[in-house]
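Continuing the series of single-chain predictions for the mutant panel. This is the parent chain; the variants come on the following pages.
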Amino acid sequence: MRIVLVGPPGAGKGTQAAYLAKNLAIPHISTGDLFRANISQGTDLGKKAKAFMDAGELVPDEVTIGMARDRMNQPDAAGGFLLDGFPRNVSQAEALDEALKEDGVTLDAVLDLEVPEEEVVKRIAGRRICRKDSSHVFHVSYSPPKQQGVCDVCGGELYQRDDDSEETVRKRLEVYHTQTEPIIDYYKAQDLVVTIPALGKVEEVTERAMAALQGGK
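Parent structure:
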């Protein structure tokens, strides 16, 4: 299956993408991984992307699309793929359609992870990270530490990242609503969108998504 995963920040896209890709036996292709791989391997597209990033500028769509297309054409993606974080806007969605058409394939579904806005704010703004080891993550509501402000694992100080503040989260949501959300209507016109309520346990959300995909919407 060829799937695009969309949803607001904090919807759990990365987590769901990993689970779904494993269940469907297809590669999980995220824009972050694409950028890191191309830059570390020193590809032409990676060099172009790095030049823009070093200058503090947005990487042009054609560079991102080029990376995604290269990845989608690799042998392990012959039977399908799951795109996470791409496309981010309607122009990228149109370019993706064109690239897939040239390669003789089409998307099977666009999974829209639906989470109420206030839940998104609560999920992200409540995160606390350990200063000693950033892999130790807690949440003031969902997984609070035994002692406030102290990591259960190593005793390090817990803090809130700047980009997890409520103000920053709301700004990120504004960007999502204006830039990325319109692709849902774009794909609805192609009858590709499957909306999945993304509240509840990770496994429950995965089960809903798998059932929707297997049931053909």
